[in-house]
Amino acid sequence: MLDDLKRVGLGVLLALLAGCGGVDGAGGNPAGPAPQPEAPSGDSLSLAGVAAIGAALDGATVTVRGPDGQLIDLGDIVTGANGSYQVDLPADTPLPLLVIVQPPDGDPVRTVIPAAEDGATSIVANVNPMTELVTNEVIGAANDDPASVATSLGPVADDPAVIDATGDDVVQALFGNDVTYGSFADDPAFTAAGGDDLPTVADTLLDTLADTAADDGKTLGTFLAEQRALPTAPKLLEKPAFQVKLVGQLLAKGNAAEDIESTLQASGALAPLPDGETTDVFRAAIQAVPEVIAQANAATTSLDGSPDLKAAAAKAAVDTLANLVTERSERFGDSPASVATALASNGLRSAVASVVTNVVTPVLEQVAARDDGGSGVVNAVDSVLRTTAKAAGKTLSAFSTSQIEATNVSALATAHLQRNVVDANLADQLDAIQSGDATTTDLVVADDDVSKTTDALRDLVTGDPGLIDGGDADAVLDDPPGAWNVNDWNEFDWS
Which of 65, 303, 360, 455 shows the smallest number of beta carbons within 10 Å? Predict the structure, then answer.
């Protein structure tokens, strides 16, 4: 529930992406209706697809504009509970077509149908944030003026391949590996979250994008625009934190742990191993995340009566692991092999589950005891858990994998988070956070500098040696080789 209710209002995507490029009717294309390619042969043309933003768009209105920019009279077309829609068009309907899906709340999402295969009597047109992003890049922002729409569709009529070419470029830059635009746009098997069937990997990628954006307090629209503007393609499927989050999302949506590797490979999201290699970071994450979730679930039996809150605790464990590998790979420059070794560490998995359980569970137990069971503070709880997971990941990144394996650091990390990071009365402040009278940062210390985290951990051990096995702080908190840049504690010189 927390994940579903916290999903970004993706209608904001249009407004935020409007400045990314494209034409608005005043560009260099000739005025007037776009040229009209031949329609598929047959008695009728069936148009069907799934509209989703990760979650299926239920009860959304579907409209279609032809190459002249005019709305085609289809009657009232509304998506079903699983986001699906279907409409029969006249066989002589000219292409390209612009499909617009208007959710009950928020702005529309769109897709462009450039052409159909010769003899085709049906077209699949899924509509989601990826098709909107590509549509925005090719024809510009949403526009209700028929002449402007006709003008913007002109390049598609001239070169129908521009949609798939742009789409593959966008998807490849954003995700990397072998994911294709077609898996979002015209895959007849595309399935959205929220229905009876497992969502496809493409749909789960949308949820993972939204979750990653929310970690930084951003809408998906803002996040996608920023990623597209990067000078180097982000290729998120090659980033350890995104890999961890994707595996967590797949498990949360009901995929069996033993099926995830083959499912990801079949979708193109997981690349084959190079010759001679036996594992990599992604595959290590596929093994680590189910174990972390299992340990977190086993340690949160007090939340068994509140399955949504129990799931939130498990997600906090996954987010902590994702934040930890971010620190290791991006701030400390750990090699992929070192990150894979860390993910394979039983001690690290146990430490993540233990720390999150001891810090997060008490807060969620208080939430469960509320009269509303937490339904009135969903956004506040989500914000608190995200911020706490960041701090927990940073705290555990202060220890090397060998230190975590050799010494039980969970008690020390937990003590730091409870005493220095997370306010003891946090649960009492959730209503204030929900209403905007307080912010999570007022109650959860940002703890941005790992060097300061290490100092705080040393201070704790000095005052209470029993927090670690043997009570020797130096045995657990050895300074890493190299030195911090004292003018910028976010920079570490490994030389």
Answer: 455
